[in-house]
Amino acid sequence: MEFTAQMIAGLIGGTVVGDPEAKVNNFAKIEEGKPGCISFLANDKYEQYIYGTESSIVLVNDNFEPKQEIKTTLIKVPNAREAVANLLQIYESMKPKREGISDVAFIHPSAKIGEKCYIGPFVAIAEGVEIGEGCVLHPHVTIGRNAKVGANTEIYSNAVIYHDCQVGNRCVLHAGCVIGADGFGFEPTEEGYKKIPQIGIAIIEDDVEIGANACVDRATMGATIVRRGVKIDNLVQVAHNVEVGSHTVMSAQVGIAGSTKIGEWCMFGGQVGIAGHAMIANRVMAGAQAGIPNSIKKEGAAVQGTPAIEGRNFWKSSAIVKNLPEMWADVNQMKKEIRMLKEQLAEKQ
Q: How many domains does the chain have?
């Protein structure tokens, strides 16, 4: 399907600079642009590519002023990155959705399947399961007994939803992710570790996306809850009885220990670790590899390092750390000089 520059500008509220009839049918990075593709420029570091790109259309910010001649058609928008995200969503929504149930899928007779669903080969749906309308379940998905999945949710291959757990509307669960595995609960005894039964559930609210091989454990009692709009990257661990506030985002390999409460709109970089039973305020930002041992009560705090400290202090400390060998040598030299002065004073006395 082809779109003209004028049509695209109408969809995203942009202004065409160049040929309004320029046509595109695909996306490309600006440095890899080809005729018939649309690209975008949102970072000044990539400006060099706009002067030679072969893309037919490039989205740019309103304040962009070229420093030399440009052969491509521009569409100026308030925020090029946001505009291309909107276009990609429109493009994705126009793809035809698959429907139908594979002959080699297993669906228990008591399960309820909504209309216009796609259930791929070797999907296993247990007794009492409820699947909302418009869901897409790719091959080898497993849904445990009495679990519920809302409407228009997409679950990729080998993802597992354990018994009694709940997944909301318009969610995306990527390949291999696990919702509702047992929390890590063991009681040490003289004979070894005795397992504590995990009788709670995991609840994933609406519009949540969970990356490949990420895990949200079921609660010991009650529920582990991932609130609406949360986005979780690959290989993230959310432990038992954790609550993740709405619209929080987590990069790869974040680990949250049991019973921690995360506020709304938080942002965690890769490999952030949070200790159990902590309370994290709204809009907290934790840089990559931050280790958070205790609660963070200040809303909007930005932390870094292990143990995590205020971001600016961390960077100041880091600048000092790299100079420690020289500082240590200076300290040793001063100690020698002080010792010599003391000896000289002692001799004079």
A: 3
